[in-house]
Design a protein that fits this description.
Low-confidence stretches: 81-104
Strand content: under 5%
Distance between the termini: 79 Å
Order of helices and strands: HHHHHHHHHHHHHHHHHHH
Structural class: mainly alpha
Mean pLDDT: 85
Shape: elongated
Helix content: 55-70%
Number of helices: 19
């Protein structure tokens, strides 16, 4: 009998394929997606006990189609509209073949990714819809991952599907002129999913494996579909190299352990080797982009035998190149750390100064945390302690908050007057 984990992985792989086939045939993305979710639920309940069907994709397609048929038949008051939908060309169809023509699954998966990342949707809606339609996660699972009520997430997904319907978007690949922009959105959505899983923006848990795992799985899928896209390769490498640290990020008491203090024997060496191989290869044939450069930086960290042996000059050179290609405040923030490691903490603090006036970072807890670290290195325990406490107040992640408060508590304030006996 196939295990529940194997069935879950199979269903997630089949979900976008079945949804693509239904949308090709019927259009109506909203209803087709709901039908697929019901088919996935039925499979999750039946297959563990009855066994996986010989043709699982066909089984899911049949169940989902029956669900659609039942829904349409029950709409007696809207029969005229049902007939019109049945005879007209679906909004998504274009020149698409019939669903039973069994088109390559990869084509539909890529089309779904582009559709879920439609520019008419807000980024939060793109993330939720991608996890639901392409990732095969239930609304409840997505809501739990983002610490939102299920009803709130359900409304967000419903509005996203309705917005896609309202735009008249077609189930086709975007034009050559639009493809790069849409692919950039797809990569960013996958990266946002990964980041939320790797360092949760709120709640008691530092890491949410269901999100990082799903982001890596979907990025692997995208890489298989677009093996010649250097930035997709770089994104996959970056995720693997970053996630390789996961087991070492928490101490025995659940406390956060920074990179420099992690036990590197606990890093996932298979993930490190795969990530290093991917980024090393892609840089030989693709012009470096932002994800590739971030992956290259992660690879330098990963290949260092210890924190003390990290090649900081190389990391600084990569950050300078990244700042030229894709300048933004977070790149500057990370570059300041590299500058501090090469040229001293005062040089790093000087680089942070403009970010204090930048409205995008002025109140961000990461800026306060980096300032605290560099002030501590510069031998200013009082200001460092104040900055650590400011960073702790600014984060909604409980593990980060505890770590920052602990760093503040450990500092000895040099200028605090000592008490003397009378």
């Amino acid at each position: 009998m196939t295990g529940s984990r194997e069935i879950e992985e199979l269903l997630r792989a089949l979900a976008p394929q079945v949804l693509g086939l239904l949308v090709r045939r019927h259009g109506q993305f909203d209803r087709c997606e709901d039908a697929v979710q019901e088919a996935l639920l039925a499979a999750a309940l039946q297959w563990p006990g009855q066994g996986v069907p010989e043709k699982p994709r066909a089984w899911l397609l049949t169940v989902a189609t029956r669900r659609l048929t039942d829904e349409w038949r029950s709409e007696r008051a809207r029969r005229d509209r049902e007939v019109a939908v049945a005879v007209r060309e679906p909004a998504y169809a274009g020149v698409a073949p019939a669903a039973d023509a069994e088109p390559p699954a990869g084509d539909d998966t890529l089309r779904l990714l582009f559709l879920c990342c439609h520019p008419a949707l807000a980024r939060s809606a793109q993330v939720a819809l991608t996890l639901r339609a392409v990732g095969g996660l239930t609304t409840a699972q997505i809501a739990r991952a983002y610490l939102l009520p299920e009803a709130t997430m359900s409304q967000r997904i419903r509005r996203a599907k309705q917005r896609i319907e309202a735009t008249g978007a077609r189930f086709t690949m975007p034009s050559a002129a639009d493809r790069d922009e849409r692919l950039s959105a797809v990569r960013q959505v996958l990266y946002l999913i990964f980041n939320e899983g790797y360092t949760s923006s709120g709640g008691p848990d530092l890491h949410r494996a269901e999100l990082t795992g799903e982001a890596i799985r979907l990025t692997r899928m995208l890489h298989a579909l677009l093996p010649d896209d250097g930035e997709v390769t770089g994104l996959l490498a970056l995720m693997l190299l970053t996630d390789s640290h996961r087991a070492a990020r928490l101490g025995p008491g659940g406390e956060l352990v920074p990179l420099a203090e992690q036990d590197r024997t606990r890093w996932d060496r298979a993930a490190v080797e795969e990530g290093v191989a991917l980024i090393t290869d892609s840089l030989t044939w693709s012009p470096p982009g932002p994800y590739q450069l971030q992956a290259a930086i992660a690879a330098v960290h990963a290949e260092a035998p210890s924190a003390a042996e990290t090649d900081w000059p190389q990391i600084l050179a990569l950050y300078r190149l990244l700042a030229r290609i894709a300048p933004n405040p977070m790149v500057t923030l990370n570059q300041a750390v590299a500058v501090a490691m090469v040229d001293g903490p005062r040089a790093g603090l000087a680089m942070l100064a403009p970010l204090v006036e930048d409205e995008r970072t002025a109140g961000h807890h990461r800026l306060a945390a980096v300032r605290a670290h560099l002030l501590e290195l510069a031998g200013e325990p009082g200001p460092a302690r104040a900055a650590y406490l400011a960073a702790a107040r600014g984060t909604t992640s409980l593990p980060e908050q505890r770590y920052l408060e602990l760093r503040a508590a450990r500092l000895v304030v040099a200028d605090q007057p000592r008490r003397t006996d009378p």
